[in-house]
Amino acid sequence: MTLEAADGVIKYRSQRVAGTFAQPSEWVQLNAARTTLFDLGLIGVTGQGVGFGNLSLRTQGDQFLITGSATGAVRELNAQQYCLVESFSVAHNTVQCRGALDASSESMTHGAIYQTNPQVRCVVHGHSRVLFDALLQGNAPRTAVDVPYGTPAMAQAVTRLVLGQTALPVLFVMAGHDEGVVAYGADVASATRLMVETFQKVLSHDQDRHHRR
Ligand SMILES: [Zn+2]
User: Fold this and answer.
1) I want to staple 194 with a disulfide (CB 3.0 to 4.6 A). Which of 160, 169, 184, 188 is the partner?
2) Closest of 52, 49, 55 to residue 34, by C-alpha
3) C-alpha of residue 212 to centroid of ligand 1, in Å
4) Distance between CA atoms of residues 213 and 198, nearest Å
5) pTM
């Protein structure tokens, strides 16, 4: 495998084996959480047909199960629409995965979190204009505005951010990835709850402001 450098940025490379893998028991919970996030619009597809948002679950070591690429339009996924990331390299921006679909280029962000904090079992990445703006205006942890998604620089920025957090779960904003927010925690429930509850709080404040006008 060769790496191509364009403008000094190492291009993301995913190598996939079209095999099957054992489904962890928490998969049902993970998939239900995804449907909840889809219904809230935190995972979905843009008007241009580009999918956004993904979530993952640590299986063993630094391996993790993640939603496959180009699944954003589907409300309820099946097991074949997930893939297992078996290994990855933040430095080389490469991912080796197993399954019927490719792993998203945002897999590296998930991998960086699992690698940095062994207590983390679940990572949730969603997109929301209101949540993104609210977190940036507040004092939420964040990656810098000049760090774009899907790059080794993002994985490195996320590693630094995770090292700076002592408690779980954590919600942070990717200032350089428009609308991008990430929650991670010790299990599916705590990571998902933090993102959903914060999102709903922001929405209700937003509505209050409109009512008072
Ligand atoms: Zn994203």
Assistant:
1) 169
2) 55
3) 33
4) 23
5) 0.92
Between the CA of 207 and the centroid of ligand 1 the distance, in Å, is: 25
Domain with 60, as residue range(s), is 5-212
Q: What is the CATH number of the domain that holds 37?
A: 3.40.225.10
Strand-pair partners of 138: none
Q: What is the pLDDT of residues 82-123, one digit of tens each?
A: 999 999 998 888 999 999 998 887 899 999 999 999 999 999
C-alpha pair distances (Å), 177 with each of 5, 50, 173, 188, 205: 21, 14, 8, 23, 24
Which pLDDT score, from 0 to 100, does residue 3 have? 43
Query: Ligand 1 centroid vs 114 CA: distance in angstroms?
Result: 18
Query: What domain count does the chain have?
Result: 1
Token digits of residue 186 = 């010790």
